[in-house]
């Protein structure tokens, strides 16, 4: 029952939008989804494992019958869900510092959004619309996204060395091994405990 | 931005005095009225940021207070409670956050820090030991006359000398003190590489509010500060850390490992830090030290890591690349602009020339002081995320090679290429080359704020 599981943080934020604005957001998402270059900044923030915005229309909230009172919702909702490594403050700071235009584009249609700069008001807003995580499973709580990407590189390089090795002369193996080390040398960080949260 | 009011800012904040001798006094206040009287008498003695039109003075004096020290003046509760929480707690209570555990844990610190009696830091710098003594006697006389403070301890520090001339070397032999940040409005001979990286590749000063309270910071906001504004404005927060250096361990490790390293001992020493021991940035000159670069202010801090993502010139985990990553995290450096700190400090203890026997047990190290507007966002972040951890640099849990709290388990990868003199190399079983022996967080107020404290006129409103 926590937003934090080892090195990974799960953030959920839900913000109301006036229904006519939802269409604008859908158009923006359509564009962002089809022009990959517009996503590049978000992708380049290496401590973000995952980030997604989804529109939840006001008629699409679950209705289970069984005496559940039907609600007449006035707003559509924008759900933001992200998994990232590092501290909450670091994450919002980075968002505000390098993605402010993109964030404003997506969130400015939500009610009372103050803008992603200055960062203090933005943090207050996120804190207000964030919902804590009830259940959170992480396969590798001692690893970050960078650690996982590094592990894949090390594994692939090792597999290829192993494949080559049986047919190598000692001289060829020396050269193959050196190449292997150079392939993995920037990907050898240890995994382990996350720093203390502050 | 117009010039800052330099006469209202303590000189220690605006400039590294570059005076080779120092003594840091640690004071305890026993009575608020007498302590205020002492601050009042000290006011004309405190060195401000005013320009030295008549040359450098013989000595300087500056003062800063712990939260307990401010409380000892009987400042209003509303003011005392308005300080940021990390300053309220003090550095000892932040040990787990900072990775100050194991051998670096507070229970191993000098006795001075153990009973929470340090109320003030009084820093004296001088051109000679005699000048420091003279200033010290003057201040001690004021302490006696007013009965305002008890001196708990002092720490002497001094530049390491070469034939009687001060150098900027520290005990491991590295030339130190490059690249403090530039700030808007702070008059200083600036050089490229010291501020923030701009999209066109030039360097610009950081916002004043990254250093001083009361001014806009890099996010365009006023830094979190105590009330009233006039108490905070032109002040800053200071970290004091006494860092013991295990010289014998360092030399033995370097010698033993470099015996297996194709680039040789000096190159391995350079790879540890990211600078050759004479100060040449490895990124600019990966194969040999180049005094011409060191002496050229347009070059010695003017480099980036964008063209070296694999660390084959400057290792990804090298000390200077970790603590000032420049553009290494992409986004043209914008992720690091709010994590910069201004460093002050000098070595302490007897220097041991190369080749002479050294021991870890001798009292020797560096007094590290850092100035920043936000202890948590700047110093604590750098200490936790970039020194004691490595994810931002894609280094997993690996710690800073030089000052990490390794406990014998540390690892440092020297990235290399196919050449025989720059091979990839693994340094394992890293010991603690540096150990923390104590310190605290201090508030370094403006001259106006010192006056208000002295007169007991702090009004939180």
What report would you give on this structure?
The complex is a heterodimer of chains A (198) and B (461). Chain A is an alpha+beta fold and 198 residues long. Chain A has 2 domains: 4-131, Alpha-Beta Plaits (2-Layer Sandwich); 145-187. Helix content of chain A is 43%, strand content 17%. Chain A contains 7 helices and 5 strands. In chain A, strands 1, 2, 3, 4 and 5 form a 5-stranded antiparallel sheet that branches. The radius of gyration of chain A is 22 Å and the shape is elongated. The two termini of chain A are 18 Å apart. With 461 residues, chain B is α+β, with helices and mostly antiparallel strands. Chain B has 2 domains: 6-242 and 439-455, no CATH class; 247-339 and 376-435, no CATH class. Chain B has helices at residues 11-14, 32-42, 67-72, 77-80, 85-89, 95-98, 129-146, 229-232, 247-258, 265-273, 291-294, 319-323, 375-387, 447-455; strands at 21-28, 59-65, 120-126, 150-158, 161-162, 165-166, 196-197, 203-204, 236-245, 342-348, 365-372, 410-414, 425-430, 434-444. In chain B, β7 and β8 (203-204) form a beta hairpin. At the A-B interface, α3, α6 and α7 of A face α13 of B.
Brief overview:
The complex is a heterodimer of chains A (198) and B (461). Chain A has 198 residues and is α+β, with helices and mostly antiparallel strands.
- Give the largest interface pair and sizes: A-B, 37 and 45 residues
- State the total count of DSSP E strands of chain B: 14
Total DSSP E strands of chain A: 5
The secondary-structure element order of chain B is HEHEHHHHEHEEEEEHEHHHHEEHEEEH
Global geometry of chain B: globular
Give me the oligomer status: heterodimer
Question: Whole-number radius of gyration of chain B?
Answer: 22 Å
| Alpha plus pi helix count of chain B | 14
CATH topology of the largest domain in chain A: Alpha-Beta Plaits
Estimate the helix proportion of chain B, in percent: 10-25%
């Amino acid at each position: 029952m926590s937003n934090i599981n080892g090195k990974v943080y799960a953030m959920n934020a839900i913000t109301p939008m006036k229904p006519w604005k939802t269409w604008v957001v859908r158009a923006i998402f359509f564009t962002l989804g089809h022009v990959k270059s517009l996503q590049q900044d978000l992708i380049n923030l290496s401590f973000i494992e995952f980030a997604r915005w989804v529109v939840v229309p006001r008629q699409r909230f679950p209705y289970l019958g069984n005496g559940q009172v039907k609600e007449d919702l006035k707003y559509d909702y924008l759900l933001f869900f992200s998994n990232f490594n590092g501290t909450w403050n670091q994450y919002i700071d980075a968002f505000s510092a390098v993605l402010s235009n993109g964030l404003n584009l997506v969130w400015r249609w939500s009610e009372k959004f103050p803008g992603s700069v200055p960062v203090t008001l933005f943090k207050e807003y996120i804190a207000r619309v964030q919902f804590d995580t009830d259940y959170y499973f992480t396969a590798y709580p001692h690893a970050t996204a960078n650690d996982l990407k590094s592990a894949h590189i090390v594994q692939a390089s090792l597999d290829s060395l192993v494949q080559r090795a049986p047919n190598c002369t000692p001289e060829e193996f020396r050269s193959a091994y050196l190449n292997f080390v150079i392939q993995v040398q920037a990907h050898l960080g240890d995994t382990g405990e996350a720093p203390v949260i502050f | 931005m117009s010039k800052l009011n330099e006469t209202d800012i303590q000189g220690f904040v605006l400039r590294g005095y570059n005076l080779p001798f120092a003594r840091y006094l640690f004071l305890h206040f026993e009575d608020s009225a007498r302590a205020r009287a002492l601050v009042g008498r000290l006011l004309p003695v405190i060195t401000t940021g005013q320009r030295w039109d008549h040359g450098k003075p013989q000595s300087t004096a500056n003062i800063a207070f712990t939260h307990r020290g401010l409380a000892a003046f009987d400042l209003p509760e509303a003011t005392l409670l308005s300080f940021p929480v990390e300053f309220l707690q003090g550095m000892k209570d932040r040990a787990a956050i900072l990775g100050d555990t194991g051998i670096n844990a507070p229970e191993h610190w000098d006795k001075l820090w153990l009973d929470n009696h340090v109320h003030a830091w009084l820093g004296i710098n001088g051109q000679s030991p005699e000048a420091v003594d003279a200033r010290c006697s003057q201040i001690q006389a004021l302490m006696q006359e007013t009965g305002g403070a008890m001196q708990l301890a002092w720490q002497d520090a001094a530049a390491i000398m070469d034939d009687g001339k001060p150098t900027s070397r520290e005990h491991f032999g590295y030339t130190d003190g490059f690249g403090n940040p530039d700030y808007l409005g702070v008059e200083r001979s600036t050089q490229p590489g010291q501020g923030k990286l701009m999209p066109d590749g030039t360097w610009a000063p950081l916002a004043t509010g990254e250093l001083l309270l009361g001014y806009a910071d890099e996010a365009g906001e006023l830094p979190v500060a105590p009330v009233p504004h006039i108490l905070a404005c032109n002040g800053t927060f200071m970290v004091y850390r006494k860092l013991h250096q295990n010289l014998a361990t360092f030399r033995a490790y370097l010698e033993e490992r470099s015996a297996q390293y194709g680039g040789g001992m000096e190159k391995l020493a350079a790879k540890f830090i990211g600078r050759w021991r004479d100060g040449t940035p490895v990124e600019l000159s990966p194969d040999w030290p180049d005094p011409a670069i060191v002496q050229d202010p347009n070059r010695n801090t003017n480099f980036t890591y964008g063209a070296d993502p694999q660390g084959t010139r400057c290792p990804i985990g090298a000390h200077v690349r970790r603590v000032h990553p420049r553009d290494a995290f992409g986004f043209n450096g914008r992720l690091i602009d709010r994590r910069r700190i201004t460093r002050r400090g000098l070595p302490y203890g007897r220097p041991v020339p190369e080749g002479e026997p050294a021991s870890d047990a001798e009292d020797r190290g560096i007094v590290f002081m850092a100035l920043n507007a936000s202890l948590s966002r700047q110093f604590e972040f750098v200490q936790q995320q970039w020194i004691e951890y490595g994810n931002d640099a894609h280094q997993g849990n690996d710690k800073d090679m030089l000052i990490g709290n390794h406990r014998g388990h540390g690892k440092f990868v020297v990235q290399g290429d196919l050449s025989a003199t720059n091979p990839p190399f693994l340094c394992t079983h890293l010991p603690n080359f540096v150990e923390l022996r104590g310190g605290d967080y201090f508030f370094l107020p403006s001259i106006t704020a010192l006056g208000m404290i002295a007169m007991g006129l702090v009004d939180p409103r």
